[in-house]
Amino acid sequence: MPPSSLRVVYAFAREMHPKTTDVFIQYGTAGFRTKASLLEHVVYRMGLLAVIRSRVKNGRTIGMMITASHNLEPDNGVKLIDPHGEMLEQSWEELATRLANVSDNDLESTTEQIIKEVNADMGLKASVFIGMDTRYTSPRLAAAAVHGVMALKGTPKEFGIVTTPILHYCVRCRNDNSYGKPTEEGYYEKIVGAFKNIRQKLSVTGNYNTILYVDGANGVGGKKLNIIKKGLDGELDLVLHNLGGNGGKLNLNCGADYVKVSQKPATGFEAPPLQRVASLDGDGDRLVYYYLDQNENMKLLDGDRIATLLASYITELLAASGALGLRLGLVQTAYANGASTKYITQKLKIPVTCVKTGVKHLHHAALSYDVGVYFEANGHGTVVYSDAAKRAVREAADTGDVEQRKSAELLLDLIDMTNETVGDAISDLFLVETVLCARGLDARDWLAQYTDLPCRQLKVTVQDRNVISTADAERKCTAPEGLQSRIDELVDKYTDGRAFVRPSGTEDVVRVYAEADTQQAADKLAAEVAQAVFDLAGGAGERPVLPE
Ligand code: NG1
Ligand code: ZN
């Protein structure tokens, strides 16, 4: 395409999506995320970048998801999805940031420069799938995305309101039709179909019962489960709440992030004691479980629990199927509860890798195993299977003895039920329900597998969060000077104490994590570390206070 046709890039920008703010914006852990009112020009420009990316990938489809996940309603965001359905390659984050921040006047030349830098053949076709969450600002932003794609003569395809993982799945299928059909219906057919298949092979035993309460965070995930529920034929009795009606606000006092961070049950409904509740986040890519005990205390079953549950069941099936020689490993971040890591390594004897926060890091590390189970403690995760693993399981299903075949067939259903592209609350929910059913567990049995160390997360506001640097998968802090030795001194005072700090990639804060032998101790340690951050890393606003 001759450079003169880039005029339309400027024309669309000026007429429809002008840059009206000078606030610098960065492509972070989860793409761009900020107040929706500051995003229209950014999303338009990501439409341009998606087309360039598609051409660099020989015309394969790229995804664009409009969402701010677990953030509150006024925020929004955009992230790009690569051809395999994974997050955008890290080296392109800098290009995204550059393109998002130039002035409208420099947009045309910067676009041209990026095209040259990445050596995109602008004569090729380009295809971009666009999805959005339920925020009222999303349709407008999706329209800006479409204009960006059109400005560079790409072909946009709009999916309307979908969960983030459904869009990742569709992108993957469009580029690799052996993975499935690139439509929302195709996703239901494969994932929910596999769940129904497996449930016919498993009988409901032990303490398991088929009732599951769901907190939909007033977002898109609950809405999709409402569609799925109708076709479940009683294999699972979903009781859906927080679906966005009745004045319920997205992620407000509900949803996976609220439940995990505040350690409180979702508001908007009450589940009977001992009844398990699955809590999704606003765009349906995170899942945590909880229940209330007889004294109304909440018991949380987070991403670490889901990871251990899935990893131990898959390990057992692999052994029973005779598909030997496959390496199964688990990937966590520093936020994983210390008790879970101990349980995995010492009891389950499964190798664990610890990586930096952010799904792209976990996903990447998981790919180095034949079967890689990865979860952030906040409930974002999935399982990835290598081609060798899939081949071995298929062979076991074809050639094993009767018992081996049975296990291999269960594994094949589990693989089909898994959205391997990204953490997916809906797929993970069906996986968890499968394992609980197969093992005859209720929520209490699941919780009894190990005892979490009490923990606390806090946020500290500082003038510039980038003064904090970390190493060793964020478990140590290398700047500012003196902060790590201060944290070490504080941690030393506590039994089973552990704490670390890191700048958030999605909010303008420093995050503090602490765990210790009692809740009181964990709260106190977190507050002391927060004070150390405030004092040594340029605290702004109110000084964190120690608990009474
Ligand atoms: P930041 O804000 O960088 O901590 C949060 C989560 C990540 C990840 C991203 C993307 C925690 C402590 N952090 O990142 O794990 O999920 O959001 O949504 O939960
Ligand atoms: Zn999310």
How would you portray this structure in words?
- By secondary structure, the chain is α/β, with parallel strands linked by helices.
- The protein folds into 4 domains: 3-161, Alpha-D-Glucose-1,6-Bisphosphate, Chain A, domain 3; 187-299, Alpha-D-Glucose-1,6-Bisphosphate, Chain A, domain 3, CATH 3.40.120; 303-424 and 437-447, 3-Layer(aba) Sandwich (Alpha-D-Glucose-1,6-Bisphosphate, Chain A, domain 3); 455-536, 2-Layer Sandwich (TATA-Binding Protein).
- 41% of the residues lie in helices and 18% in strands.
- The strands form 5 sheets. It has a 5-stranded mixed sheet, sandwiched between helices.
- Helix 7 packs parallel to helix 15 (425-439), helix 10 (303-321) packs antiparallel against helix 14 and helix 17 (483-492) packs antiparallel against helix 18 (519-536).
- It is globular.
- 2-acetamido-2-deoxy-1-O-phosphono-alpha-D-galactopyranose binds next to loops.
In helices, the fraction of residues equals 40-55%
Distance between the termini: 67 Å
Strand content: 15-25%
Class by alpha and beta content: alpha/beta
At CATH level 2, the architecture of the largest domain is 3-Layer(aba) Sandwich
Superfamily (CATH H level) name of the largest domain: Alpha-D-Glucose-1,6-Bisphosphate, subunit A, domain 3
Gyration radius over CA: 23 Å
Largest β sheet strand count, sense and barrel closure: 5 strands, mixed
Bound molecules: 2-acetamido-2-deoxy-1-O-phosphono-alpha-D-galactopyranose, zinc ion
Give the strand order of the largest sheet, numbering strands 1, 2, ... along the chain. 1-3-2-4-5
Low-confidence stretches: none
Number of continuous helical runs: 18
